[in-house]
Amino acid sequence: MLVTTCMVSVVSFILNSHISFLEKSAFSCSTSSVELTSLLLLCSESIFGYKQPRVDLCYGAATLTTYLGFSYGEKGTAEDLEGAKPDPVEAIISDKLAPGFLTSRDEFSVRLAMESSFEPFGDLKHVYPATANNQQCQHEIYQGNILTPRLRDYHARLQTFVLWFIDAASFIDPDDENWDYFFVFKRKTVDGQPHYCIVGYATVYKYYAFPDKTRPRISQFMILPPFQRQGHGAELLQTIYNQYLGDERVLDMTAEDPSDEFAALRDYVDARNCSRLSSYQPSVIRSGFTPELARQAQKELKLNKQQARRVYEILRLRATDRSNPLEYRNYRLDVKRRLNKPFQKQQSEIKKLQQVLDPDELAATIASTGLEERHQKLNSLYELTEQSYLRTAEKVATV
Description:
Elements: E1 5-6, E2 11-16, E3 32-35, E4 46-47, E5 50-51, E6 54-60, E7 66-71, E8 74-75, H1 89-94, H2 105-112, E9 123-132, E10 135-144, H3 151-158, H4 160-165, E11 179-190, E12 193-209, E13 213-223, H5 232-245, E14 254-255, H6 260-274, H7 282-285, H8 291-301, H9 305-319, H10 325-339, H11 341-353, H12 359-368, H13 371-397
Parallel strand pairs: 2-6, 13-14
Antiparallel strand pairs: 1-4, 2-3, 5-8, 6-7, 9-10, 10-11, 11-12, 12-13
Helix pairs in contact: 5-6, 6-9, 6-13, 8-9, 9-13, 10-13
């Protein structure tokens, strides 16, 4: 009897810059290999009907030429599976891949030989060094749009990565001219010739803001796993900011359903930038959040009021002497007043329920949202918020 096999244990993801990784018997990785943590909702993240199944997803490091391979030790018969059919693994995965992917290892090896001829497209926006494995390489960030030659097909291959690594991710509409694209490449010189490798990318949608402004919203934002925690995310986000800071038509910038990781990155970059503003200096922010802080953050850095307030709390915590009971207490109360607003709204709604609920129903509702429980939730929320703020403040302090 063939059993269901967990996807995580049978999927290998490989990013390749040359052909030496190809062997006759199996794939081995010569550059970087990352185990996938999720692969669609492919058969509930499992493969049914095979013994020793194996999925190989390989991408050319620069061109993103794609190879899909599926192999197994044994395939179940109708009798083995009690009338059920084995999962159509290749069909399900290929449905999410961009057209033109390969299923021949020999053809893929031939295409990999062309990686060295790849040249990035779009406008070069930023160049910076980064170190990994004790080696420093130059990195370049390019920006383009739907009219940029080669960009559309390249992004179609690249955006499959968000499905493999980000829960609940989705593709964007490539026909919409309001999208801007940003690509991060590592550049390494070999025998006098530049060789590129994709590091990450982001997409930004320019929404309309009444009456004559735009509000760019960061949608897809990803640094590939082999290159994470090396500073690339901050470089990419700052480059995106720089693209719009000088545009008077831009009201402010937002992010679409940010993950916890992106929210932490955004906090760091925004706090670093705000720490250079006059209104965010320690002597000023100790007096509390004012309209001037929101105004300058919006004018100079395109931050919306909500993010400006969050950054204020981070920088005020950094400026607060937590060994001083009064100073620390004033800070905690300032943050808790903001965190308490949803609870206050909840209390207002309970008053409205008095008109429609009978006494027993109302008593049950009040019991579930009692003062003691509310205080516990507020204190817990504050502790989590402060811990997050401290991590960000410590990073900003090292800049």
